[in-house]
Design a protein that fits this description.
The chain has helices at about 40-45, 150-155, 160-165, and strands at about 10-15, 25-30, 45-50, 55-60, 65, 80-85, 90-95, 100-105, 120, 120-125, 130, 135-140, 170-175. It contains three helices and 13 strands; from the N terminus they run ββαββββββββββααβ. A hairpin with a 5-residue loop joins β3 (about 45-50) and β4. The chain starts with 8 loop residues before the first strand and ends in an 18-residue tail after the last strand.
């Protein structure tokens, strides 16, 4: 389903093999890449991905923001959090609950009335399929810009679903396992798939 609000905090537990040689193109974790017209795509898209160098990236309304300080291809589970800080007007990357990098650039356009379906682990852009080349264990999206303390708590308590659901800014949250054919949204929005 489409998430009809700006995602100001995106979090995921991911695992990619060290020096993944097959990562020759970007690897989509979560987003709404699809073969729609470019004008609409540039107005309503938000996609979180890993580039061919193992960097976490955000593509927002046609603009790309790349965090170059950490290669997530570690062959271990890594918690990533990308925060679009609406107050400081910057982007932050947290790795395993710790601030890793801050970008002074900022996607200022708010995403509302979004009708593009969000997908986990894949996307299609210019007729090219971008699959995630690794494992995804958990995804959560918030409309709020989470603080450093909240990010660390989310990293430490990812499986405490009752605790997470008390946050009214939680747009989507799902635990993922290989072979799942149905995804339960653990937020109050019930965006099940």
């Amino acid at each position: 389903k489409a998430i009809n609000s700006s995602i100001n905090t995106f979090q995921a537990f991911i695992r990619i093999e060290k020096n993944q040689e097959t990562l020759s193109k970007e690897s989509v974790i979560f987003g709404n890449y699809d073969n729609y017209d470019t004008i609409a795509f540039n107005s309503y898209s938000s996609t979180y991905k890993v580039d061919k160098n193992g960097n976490v990236c955000l593509e927002w309304c046609g603009e790309e923001f790349v965090f170059e300080s950490f290669d997530v291809r570690t062959d271990e589970w890594v918690h990533i959090a990308v925060v679009r800080d609406v107050n400081s007007r910057n982007l932050k990357l947290f790795i395993n609950g710790i601030l890793q990098e801050t970008l002074d650039s900022y996607p200022s356009k708010e995403l509302t009335n979004n009708y593009f379906t969000h997908r986990i682990g894949c996307g299609i852009k210019n007729n090219i399929k971008y699959s995630f080349l690794g494992e995804i264990g958990h995804i959560s999206c918030y409309s709020s810009s989470r603080t450093s303390t909240e990010i660390y708590d989310d990293f430490s308590n990812v499986y405490d679903v009752n605790w997470k659901n008390r946050d009214s800014n939680l747009l989507f949250s799902a635990m993922l396992e290989i072979g799942d054919t149905y995804i339960y949204d653990l937020s109050a929005n019930f965006n099940n798939a």
